[in-house]
Each structure stands twice: as C-alpha cells, then as structure tokens.
C-alpha cells in the first residue's frame, strides 16, 4: 500500500532532482556554447546560435594562439608559478615563526599579518602606481610578482597557521634533541607534515593569480607583458568582429584551470575543509 | 623549560612583515594623504586641498549611482550566494547517491574556476541582442516581447552584470556550505528523522544552526566582495551606458587613470576602505567571543 506521505515524498524528491539537474544545465550550457563556438565560422555563429558547428576545424584556435594567446599564456604561467611558490613559502615560513617561536609583540605581529585579510587591494592602487613608477618597476614582471605575493600572504598564512597550530610541539622538540636546528626542523619535519594544507594553498593561489584582473590591468598597461585575462580583452577589442577566434581564446584560457580543478578536486575540497572550517 | 633565544623569531616573520608593510600598509596610509591633495598633471606637483575631494564626491551623482550599484550587488549576492547556496548545498547533500552529490558540487563549481574575465566575455555574448543565446531562448519559447539589448540599456545593464556574477560565484559558496554540512555529525540528522521531523524542519532545526559559523563567514566575504567588484563590470560594460552600471572601483579607475585626478580617485578609495574595513570589524566583533585563537 502506498501511503499519502510516500507519494508526497516521491513528488518532492522528483521536484528537487529536476531542479538540481536544470541548474546544472544552466551552468554547463553557456560553457559548452563557448567551446563549440570556437569551432564555428562567423556566418555559422550568426546564422543559428544553437546549432552545432558544421565541421570541427582548429582554425580559430590556431588563429587565437598566433594572435597573442600563446604569449599571454606564457606570461600567466610564469607569473602564476613564481608568485605561488613565493607566497606559499613566505607564508609557511611566517606561520612557523608564529606558531613555534617567541616573538616580541607577537599579538601585534599576528594582527599585522592577518589584518591584511581585511584590506581591499583597490584602496592601495593609486599610491602603488606612483611607488612602482618611482622604483622603475612599473610595467614589469616584478610589479605583478611583488603585488601578488604581498596581497596573498595574509590569507595563505592564515590557512597554514591554522593547520600548524594543531601539530604537536613535541615533534619539533624531538628534532632539537637530535641536534637539528629550527630551520632544519622546519624543512624536514614540519613542512612535510603540512602537505595537505600546502597543496590547497597552492591550488587557491594558482586560481587567484591565473584570474587576477585589476593589478594586471593597471600595472602592465601597454606593455607586451600581459596575462590571459588582460590579453583576452585585447583580443576582443582587436578582433571583435571575428567572434569565433575570441571564443577559441576564451576556451584556451579556461581549460587549464578547469583541468587543474578536476585533477585536484579531492585535495582542494579537503584543504578548504581544513582551512575554512577552523 | 628551555628558553628560546628571542631575537631569532623575527627572522621568520620579517619577510612577510616587510612585504606587507611596504606594499600594503604604506600605500594604504599614502592613499589617505593623496585624498586631501589636488594633483596637477601639467605642473607635475600637488597641493593640499583639505576635504575638497570628499565634498566633490558628496555632490557627484555617478558616485551615488556606483554606491547604489554596489549595494544592489551586495543584496542580490547575499540572497543567491549565501542563503540560496546554503539551501542548495542542503538539497545536494540530501541526495542519496554519493556519485551525484560529487558530480553536482563539481559542475556548479566550474564557473568559479574560469576567470571572471572569461565568464564576463562569455555573458557579453550570451546577452548579445542578435547572436546571444538569451534572446534566442526567449524567442524560442515565444517571449519575443522580452528580448532586448541587455547590456546596452541603462535600465538593465547592471542587473545583467549582477546576474552573471551569481552564475559565476554560486558554486564556490555551495561547495563551502556542502563542506560545512558534511561536518555535522550524521546522528543529529538520524535523531531528527527518528523523531519524525520532516526535511523542511530538519533544515531549519539542524542544518541552519549548525552551519551558522560558515554562514557568518560567507556573509562577510560576500558583502566585502560586493564593494570591491571591478573585473566583470569592466569587461562587460565598462560602467556604461551613461555610467548606469558604474561601481566604486570602476569609477575610481576612471577618475584615476582616465582623468588623472588622483586625489579624487584616492577619496573614492577611502570610501571603499571605510566600507570594507567596517564590514570586517563587524565580523571580528561578532566572532571574537567564540574564537579560541586571537
């Protein structure tokens, strides 16, 4: 016998499932449209926006690649790799000091480092431009590297510190008994034990740097040093009538981070759970 | 207990402090100083003008429009990316199949992994009157009367940008809420079910109270982010048409780098500083009592 509440339950479950699936379609469809448009010709695109491409040619992808996307990609990779390594290293180093050392005014030091979390980068923008012009670093790779590291230290230190606090101090002391110095203990004992949070810090910093727009736009204006987000808007303004080429460029920019996310999803979720759950 | 040698601790925090001091805190202070100056590009100097930039700000209709747009951003994002995402995460985590739970969390997250630039450009095309899929969809279901140039009109531009932001960002907060829900001990849900509590009451009596900390965090992050919006507005409308979709940071950018009026731009920056710091301090005041560390 089927009870009334059971029928209600089935209806409710079906309704929820349809809603969740519909939402997934809303998310995926524009992305699919983007990738497919990269394979279309201009007239196909304007003819019927929903249609599949008549034939899958890589022409637009090759054009986008040759019209600057390869160089934007190189810049993005270089800036992302260097700033991520520097940020995570400096933050882990600071987190070790904050959790393992006696530091005078330690509460103030902690507040100064984590306080950066509250500050919007836009607020420092105008003075930073003047400063980097004066230093001769405006429109250079160094400007982006320094800014990304400085503005990401608070959040990264916050994550790593929260993880290190829970590691027992005895493991350091055992290292000290064995005659290892603090630096040695940091490198060979504490850092390897922090691997889960280091992995998620790296992923979060890659996502941030790869996608950052404001600093990249202001500090590399007019140079050949342009990251993908800036390069794509250039591609759009220069080749605005050849939409399929722009779609191909967007796809090239999006694929690496989507791949990174799916490959590291397990660690990423675990890292977020550790980092934000505290 | 063995005493550690004190000065050595500095070496560990010095690199972080130095970078933050020079490139975050110093420019922050300089910004306050710039905001009471008038820059003369042609003479290459600057002079003290007191609160003149702030007075100009108070009488600038575009500034108020930008502040309104940021507030609209905050309100819609709170609704979709905090309360909507919490409900959505509860629905997803309520699914029986682990495979579907994981797949949906990942699918919803994908727009957050692609940059706002890519998402913004994509929706520039989605909203495009001729080839965009939004108008095509409306025509397809017979709602031709609703088709319009979404980004080209003063009445719809900012709302179209805000809608894109929700599409881009809801998966990230849904993922965070899903993690928070997973941390609730399963026996609390089981106990509620045994007591005959239905799914709706279970959501309000178990899920909502036990994810309160994450909700608080997300409210602050979302509010603060809403007043720092730049990328998507710049890519989709550049603040137009007729400044109708201008937000604080795009107006700051225009005044600073378009008009070289650095003092005025710095005054806008101060407003952003006060707003975002106020939101952050509010959070600190609320959570301080509950937090063990600092």
Give a written overview of the molecule.
The complex is a heterodimer of chains A (278) and B (294). Chain A is built from twelve helices and no strands. Chain A starts with a helix and ends with a helix. In chain A, helix 1 (4-37) packs across helix 12 (243-276) and helix 6 (141-165) runs antiparallel to helix 9 (195-211). Chain A has helices at 4-37, 42-47, 59-100, 106-115, 125-135, 141-165, 170-177, 182-193, 195-211, 214-219, 228-238, 243-276. With 278 residues, chain A is mainly alpha-helical. Chain B has a two-stranded antiparallel ribbon with strand order 1-2. The model of chain B has no long low-confidence stretch (mean pLDDT 90). Chain B has 294 residues and is an all-alpha fold. The two termini of chain B are 24 Å apart. Classes of the chains: A mainly alpha (278), B mainly alpha (294).
Which geometry of chain A do the CA atoms define? Answer: globular
Order of helices and strands of chain B: HEEHHHHHHHHHHHH
Sum up the overall morphology of chain B in one term. Answer: globular
User: Helical content of chain A, roughly?
Assistant: over 70%
Q: Give the biggest sheet of chain B.
A: 2 strands, antiparallel
Cα separation of the termini of chain B: 24 Å
The overall pLDDT average of chain B reads 90
Question: Helix and strand layout, with pairings?
Answer:
The complex is a heterodimer of chains A (278) and B (294).
Chain A: H1 4-37, H2 42-47, H3 59-100, H4 106-115, H5 125-135, H6 141-165, H7 170-177, H8 182-193, H9 195-211, H10 214-219, H11 228-238, H12 243-276
Chain B: H1 8-34, E1 37-40, E2 45-48, H2 52-58, H3 61-93, H4 98-113, H5 116-126, H6 133-140, H7 157-182, H8 186-194, H9 199-210, H10 212-226, H11 231-236, H12 248-258, H13 262-287
Antiparallel strand pairs in B: 1-2
Helix pairs in contact in B: 1-13, 2-13, 3-7, 3-10, 4-7, 5-7, 10-13, 12-13
